[in-house]
Amino acid sequence: MTYTNFTVGIGADGVALVTWNAPGRSMNVIDAAVTGELSSIVEQTATDAAVKGVVITSGKETFCAGADLTVLETLSRAFAELLASQGEEAANERFFEDSRKWSLLCRRIETCGKPWVAAINGTAVGGGFELALACHHRVAADNGKTRLGLPEVKVGLFPGAGGTQRIARMMQPADALQFLLKGDQINVERAKAMKLVDAVVPAGELVKAAKDWIAAGGSAKAPWDVEGFRLPGGPVHSKAGMMVFTPANALYRRETYDNYPAARAIMQVVYEGLQLPMDQALRVESRYFAHILRSPQAAAMIRSLFVSLQEINKGARRPPAVPRRTFKKIGVLGAGFMGAGIAYVSALAGLDVVLVDRDPETAERGKQHSQKLMDEQVKRGRADTAARDALLKCIEPTADYVALKDCDLVIEAVFEDRKVKEEVIGRAQNVIGSETIFGSNTSTLPITSLAAAFKDRARFIGIHFFSPVERMNLVEIILGKETGETALATALDYVRAIRKTPIVVNDSRGFYTSRVVGTYLREGHLMLADGVPAAMIENVGRMAGMPVGPLALNDEVAVDLAWKILKATEADLGPEAVDPRQKALLEAMVEKRGRFGRKNGKGFYDYPQAGPKRLWPGLADLQPTKLDPDTIDVTELKQRLLAIQALETARCIEEGVVTDVREADIGSILGFGFAPFTGGTLSYIDGMGSGAFVSLCAGFAKRYGVRFKPCKLLLDMAKKGEAFYGRFPPSQRTAAA
Length: 737
What we know:
It contains 31 helices and 19 strands. By secondary structure, it is of the alpha/beta class. It folds into three domains: 6-294, 2-enoyl-CoA Hydratase, Chain A, domain 1 (Alpha-Beta Complex); 329-508, NAD(P)-binding Rossmann-like Domain (Rossmann fold, 3-Layer(aba) Sandwich), CATH 3.40.50; 514-730, N-(1-d-carboxylethyl)-l-norvaline Dehydrogenase, domain 2 (Orthogonal Bundle), CATH 1.10.1040. The strands form four sheets. An eight-stranded mixed β-sheet has the order 12-11-10-13-14-15-16-17, sandwiched between helices. Strands 1-2-3-4-6-9 form a six-stranded mixed β-sheet, with helices on both faces. It has a three-stranded mixed β-sheet with strand order 5-7-8. Residues 732-737 have low confidence and may be disordered.
């Protein structure tokens, strides 16, 4: 029998070798066709007396990248159609059965009576790793690039094909919960240490090792299907069990504030499943999985953090007529913290880097930043000394601008001062080639005005990195009024080369990310000025889904920078453009008390040399009035912090600063940590409904001021009952790009 996605060959040894090699795809993914074909293969090999066992491997560099999550949209449409035609009970039953097909297939492999071995030749994640876990033995090729794991929780789901139940029966429950809730992808050596794979062998011996296990009499029963099996951590309702699940629930709530239903479901499924026989446990898992699959959080996170993210990373916004560019050498002007970080990520991608600063010593210190980062990687076992030395060899520190002459791209990352930037732009353009693209890593200065200092403005573009560069995955590409398509394509190709995610925005004050996150900081300032206790502001920020409270975030980006931006805004736009309460607070912090943030050890928090940071007690003295915390509506505070950011994003769409709804959502999550469970700032509005959001903002505007006044675009959308993803469909944006 022939298959589209698999080949099956039965050797003289009686072992069937199943090779997964989906045509037209760079990686194997799970979809309906794959599920159907593999089901047929399981039955074919199970009923063939000549087959002693089965080895499944991949014909690609990776084993399996998991499920094609776009298939979930098909499931949702089918549910809606059946709900309309046959009612809720029939729709729920069909959805349940369809959503558990891969789980049933994995269980069929596990109980088919023939030993199955997963010969894992490369990365196996999600449903692909669940398939491997359902096999009776797992052999992995010794490949440092291979990653194994169950990352579903990061897109609002959880492993729904037996992953929660098998993992919880393979290790102590505390370790299982940590593995499932973190969603980390681990290397093969760690997987072996955790007993998630049974052997690690050279790549050339992978299939042989798998077959040898079958020939040696490998069992066709999973440990949990053998009579007398005991859970690694003992019964759930035991002293040991209670020492795991009760504190684990408390930790989960402390870390997530119960914003992530999938994470909560993992806790529930493991707890309930470990009290049941395997088949019943899998059915419980499937019930929870079907429920989570239909949750608004999963829908939003899958769309933004999987579908949209893939589209953007594959070049949805790249001008198609411009040939792709490869980079031999790039230049970085400024060897400070940002410039050194840009040099590091560029060298990490294998690019040669010229790192320029005012003198050789300063440039060399910038290179030492890369050495420090690589030394840390070596110490943690994530890199070897050869990789460190190769990376450092890519970076050439110098004070000589002539070294830039052969660069394909030059990025300035000097101090955020217009005169300083204009000086280095002038010096660089005198030596770089006529095809070289020039990028400015500015977070506040308009690109169009900076481009005025460059002789060919079509080659000038904004490339805004986030700090710390090596850890932040987003890069904001800013188009000046005269930026050309070649500059845009080059910037996007570079961001792809350094394996980060780009969003493209048009020039404006603060661009997109800085502009929106500024509203989060301002709202925290105004809450403080109005008398809300500082601790409550910070806790509510995290409860709303932000990574840190607004005051802590301001300390990280620098309080004196917020003060400089406020003064510049007032100078450019007039006193009505700033809130006097915020001005008074920042002036008191910076000018009168010298509290600049983390960088000088004192901001809204104190930063002692020993011990954790703590809120500065003097904040209470800066509050003209103090509200009783028992009288404050916590839900309203959370809504204010999220709504003000979403409202500013809507204004960015209205003004044409952001032109792709996908980039607005991805930028908000990756750029400043906007509550991921919402899917991003615009998905937050769509999830609530434009009408409800306008009503919420209108109410806030009456109580707290015109900053919450809904823009004309939102009023029009509310009137028509429109959503952002309906009014501005991404497919049209992709086609236009």
